[in-house]
Amino acid sequence: DIFDSDWYTSRSLIGGADIIVIKYSVNDKTSFQDLKDSYVPMIKKALNHCSVPVIISAVGARKNAVPCTCPLCTLDRRSCVTTSEGAQLAKEFGATYLELHTLNDFYIQKYFGGVTSSLTLTEKMPILKGEASHYDSDLHNLLFCCQCADVAFYSEDSSKVVEAHKVILCSVSHVFMLLFDVKSPADIHDPSILRTAQSLFVVEAGAGLPAPHGVPPCSVPIRVVVKDSVFCSCLSDILHFIYSGAFQWERLEEDIKKKLKDSEKTEHVLEKVKCILKAPGKVHLAYVG
């Protein structure tokens, strides 16, 4: 292991490399987190002193779902490392991102054969950087600028909280599917999802939001009252978490802790978020941190 040596030796080894391949198992989220926390900072520090191309290689087939590249998909988020998480790590390095079923001779030759052969022609492989994506910023513009919003959340005292988009909320939660009639109670076989929807929200059909002159009624956001006052006070942070792909759990936890300054209330809100993101028939999401 190059990091078994002292820092200067490790930096020298990295600087003398033709290419750096960082690999991890898609079915071991703990080791992926260890990689990010322990090794990635050291590699980044070493790369400040040299220019070596990096490949991020996700190895294995996800056990609990077909891989999905949608940042809002929650199907493979619980125990596996998602495509979006691996791609984000690659983006931080300006690296190439690969997903391999296994590191057998076929895949090594297919994906790394061209790389290794090119090293005989050039001293260094050029650093490959993906085009910058504006997906995250576009979603947050929709949220914070209230563009095309079709749902408005209110507290019980009728003061406006925030507007959002049903399609994005439904993409991460069966609770919102139930709330907005995308699914009926008969479609939901998990009673905890029904309880969560009923305890947190109530839709006030046709109440309180008359259509402005010249605006068709179908364009007026649906009014949803948030029945839990503590949850309601953190709703903007929770929506920010959802619009960021619903996987930056540590950041959400920290934001809510700072806002509430009460451990019991913080735990209460986080449990409600877990219930909202819960898949039917599954246990609550387990998050590190």
Structure description:
The protein is of the alpha/beta class and 289 residues long. The protein folds into two domains: 2-118, P-loop containing nucleotide triphosphate hydrolases (Rossmann fold, 3-Layer(aba) Sandwich), CATH 3.40.50; 135-277, Potassium Channel Kv1.1, Chain A (2-Layer Sandwich). It has twelve helices and seven strands. The chain has a four-stranded mixed sheet. Strand 4 and strand 5 (160-164) form a beta hairpin. Helix 11 (249-260) runs antiparallel to helix 12. The longest helix has 19 residues, at 29-47. The relative contact order is 0.10. The model is unreliable at 69-76, 116-130 and 281-289 (pLDDT under 50).
In short:
The chain has 289 residues and is an alpha/beta fold.
List keywords for this structure.
single chain, 289 residues, alpha/beta, Rossmann fold, Potassium Channel Kv1.1, Chain A, 2 domains, 4-stranded mixed sheet, 3-stranded parallel sheet, 12% strand, disordered C terminus, nucleotide-binding, P-loop_NTPase, SKP1/BTB/POZ_sf, Small_GTPase, BTB domain-containing protein
